[in-house]
Design goal:
450 residues, 3-stranded antiparallel β-sheet, alpha+beta, 4-stranded antiparallel β-sheet, single chain
């Protein structure tokens, strides 16, 4: 399936910014009005070697062809006006830069290692990651209409050789009841008092909002950027936060204190563009004492006993009455795997605290109360879970694993569609290859028109 190989290749251009020294540069390919340089190929070869990525065949054939394919996608994306969020690109770059610095030891050591300034490394990463995201969106657009029917999926499964049917690992379905421990009024007042102090310091000019965000905000990702969120639409923010942020008009002022499910915030406007806004915020979360956590665990233990010891309440009814997890409240507590959209999880995809609880449970069992980190809110909650179903390791079948088989067929059809699209674009695009680089057994015939 060609598409899988290509998706792997795209990642080559967003790896380490390796320098290719002592290369006499030259144009080796032209695709449309875009040139491919010998130095680009050499950098990709060195990068793949550094990262241990295996290249099938001659790298001086494979890499130029894959770079040419990328240029076909990028050109089509430009024609189709496909754009990506600059704030998302910047966020990805921030994470990569932080990773490199943590691995190498410091910003200065990183610059020495790559023989580039941090700004040069960042600029290269911005371009590469932006291109990768554009290519992925272009591929998604090209394959968006691939929707096999149930009959097509069944026929596809019937044609699969026995050794091609995938093995499905053990999976579970889990229901959860969770709520946050009660925050004492004095802790809420402490948080608000600290945020009011920050507001006074910014308003009086004694401190800069972004500096305070870096030092104190408990939204660790935005804190690295001085609390800046990047341009977002109103629907991308929780309602309470959005209602206040989108009513700000003066970048010099600080908002009132805003309470959301994540904690307490103050917000400062940076810029508005149409229906999008860029702002900074400082988030503080209440501290929960050990005694308050014990009280919540005892409450959950009473709920567990009520479900187990009487016929007056089911787990599903307890979800409606007690659970504060809005992501599962409307599905009787049933958790959804955000990676697949399914209710089935492999053990490694569950929050670790839940995986530990259910590992030795039988279907229908309810766990003891425990404390876990809510992955969406990044805060501690108290929870009990029920193991709704469990399937052992098995070969995929149409009854239990229809979505798995559907995914296989969609991947095959997408690969075939992308392959045909590339062949067609080859014929529509001006392509010139230097004579010294033509002697290749290319994956896609048609690069050499004459």
């Amino acid at each position: 399936m060609k598409i899988s190989k290509f998706f792997t290749l795209v990642l080559l251009t967003v790896g380490l910014p390796v320098m290719a020294d002592n290369i006499i540069d030259e144009v080796i390919w032209i695709v449309g009005d875009e040139a491919i340089l010998r130095s680009e190929v050499e950098e990709e070869r060195l990068r793949a070697q550094y990262e241990g990525q295996q290249i099938t065949g001659d790298p001086y054939c494979y890499i130029p062809e894959q770079l040419a394919i990328q240029k076909l996608f990028l050109h089509q994306a430009e024609l189709d006006s496909i754009e990506v969020s600059e704030s998302t690109v910047s966020h990805q770059v921030d994470m990569r830069m932080d990773y490199y610095i943590s691995q190498i030891g410091s910003k200065e050591k990183m610059e020495e290692y790559f023989r580039k300034t941090a700004s040069e490394i960042r600029e290269e990463m911005m371009s590469n990651i932006r291109n990768q995201m554009v290519i992925q969106q272009m591929q998604s657009k090209l394959t968006s209409n691939i929707k096999p029917t149930p009959a097509e999926i069944r026929r596809f499964y019937a044609t699969l050789p026995a050794d091609s049917i995938p093995v499905v690992p053990a999976q579970v379905e889990v229901q959860v009841i969770s709520f946050e421990p009660i925050v004492p009024p004095e802790e809420t007042e402490r948080i608000k008092s600290q945020l009011r102090e920050f507001t006074d310091r910014v308003t009086s000019g004694k401190a800069d909002f972004s500096m305070l965000a870096r030092l104190y905000s408990e939204d660790t990702e935005s804190a690295k950027r001085g609390g800046e969120l990047g341009f977002v639409g109103k629907g991308q923010l929780v309602t309470e936060f959005a209602d206040v942020a989108f009513n700000l008009n003066d970048p010099k002022r600080v908002s009132r204190i805003v309470q959301t499910e994540y904690g307490y915030h103050i917000i400062q406007l940076i810029e508005k563009k149409g229906d999008r806004i860029n702002c900074r915020h400082i988030l503080l979360r209440p501290r929960i004492s050990a005694a308050d956590k014990v009280k919540s665990l005892e409450k959950l233990d009473s709920i567990r006993s009520l479900i187990q010891d009487s016929a007056s309440m089911t787990f599903e009814q307890a979800v409606i009455k007690f659970s504060q997890d809005k992501n599962t409240a409307l599905s009787a507590g049933l958790m959804t795997n955000m990676n697949t959209g399914s209710s089935k999880f492999e053990f490694q995809d569950l929050p670790p605290e839940i995986a530990k609880q259910i590992y030795a449970m039988s279907v229908g069992d309810i766990s003891e109360p425990f404390i876990m980190m809510d992955p969406m809110k990044n805060k501690e909650v108290c929870a009990i879970v029920k193991l709704k179903s469990k399937t052992d390791v098995h070969k995929a079948n149409l009854i239990d694993d229809f979505q798995v088989i559907k995914g296989l067929l969609e991947e095959r059809l997408a690969g075939e569609h992308i392959h045909e699209w590339i062949l067609k674009k080859q014929q529509e695009t001006y392509i010139h290859i230097d004579d010294k680089w033509k002697g290749c057994d290319f994956e896609y015939p048609g690069w050499i028109h004459d």
